[in-house]
Amino acid sequence: MKKIGILRGMETTFPEALIDRINSLNTEATAEFIQVGGIKMDELYAYDVILDRISQDIPFYRAMLKNASLSGVHVINNPFWWSADDKFFGYSLAKKLGVPVPKTVLLPHKDHPPDTNSNSMRNLIFPLNWQEIFDYIGFPAFMKPHSGGGWKDVYKVNDPGELFSSYGKTHTLCMTLQEEIDFTHYYRCYCIGKKYIRIMEYAPKQPHHLRYVQNPDPIPPALESEIKQHCLTLCNALGYDFNTLEFAVRDGIPYAIDFTNPSPDADLNSVGLENFTWVVETAAEFLIDRALNYETTLKNYNSGEFAEGKIVKRKTPPAKKK
Ligand SMILES: Nc1ncnc2c1ncn2[C@@H]1O[C@H](COP(=O)(O)OP(=O)(O)O)[C@@H](O)[C@H]1O
Ligand SMILES: [Mg+2]
User: Fold this and answer.
1) Terminus of the chain with fewer CB atoms < 10 Å: N or C?
2) For the chain, which ranges sit under pLDDT 50?
3) Ligand 1: nearest atom to the Cα of 153
4) Is the CB of residue 42 less than 8 Å from the CB of residue 70?
5) Which CATH fold would you assign to the domain 103-179?
6) What is the pTM of this model?
């Protein structure tokens, strides 16, 4: 028998339903919640596959999962890569791969990070050339953490005054400033196993419980296949097997807004019954397949095309204008 372990945080609907679904299929794989205490080095784990839903909030779990990888457990999503990526890197990667993204600039921290002072910042231009940044991004714009989630510290700013006022509240966070995509439609997509995709119409300006649009209008087929292709391109590049990707559509073009979500919301109460059933059934099928059919060694550990060195070629930067 192969064993699938589920690591979860506060969520209650998805993990239980997933375990019930896997066990009800009576395959050669069973699922259960992981139970652990203090972790010994190079410990052997009883699981073939672990689905990680919470290590982003609990460093102990992240360290445990890296250690589990050493014993050959296939951890979804890859804890090494998950520790390394960030939104700004994602936007640049998407641009390189031809996936449309809003123009985005990475901003230095507003306040000095802990245990640093102005001497630590001597490589930084000060003051920044804000006008050049504003000319590139335009207004309105979104300012959001370079690595974040759950809409935390996301600000819409309409002019330089609003920008400076919001920037002042970000303290030691590392922020990005991004062109607003004034969208006609917004889609949130599950992508599981770099194969199974579900596109959900999403209304981000609605209150939480109304955001997943129930009975949406059908998505035009050309747009649907374009979004699916972008989902595959990004998940293959990043190596994520369980992810959600968000696209804002402007003038018929889907711009990737938020696509590094390795522990995506799958709660029945937010995604609704149809999406929930899909994500439970699809995740169960995928995890069983991984447990039964993959050799779980670090050698075939799923790092994605970027980490495998398949994407980047060195280019000479343009000469600086005098
Ligand atoms: N460039 C943008 N254009 C339009 N809306 C945006 C843009 N960036 C973010 N938003 C809005 O802000 C929300 C939160 O931003 P997002 O990048 O998804 O951060 P998080 O990872 O915190 O969910 C998005 O769902 C979207 O509604
Ligand atoms: Mg988001």
Assistant:
1) C
2) none
3) 22
4) yes
5) Dna Ligase; domain 1 (3.30.1490)
6) 0.95
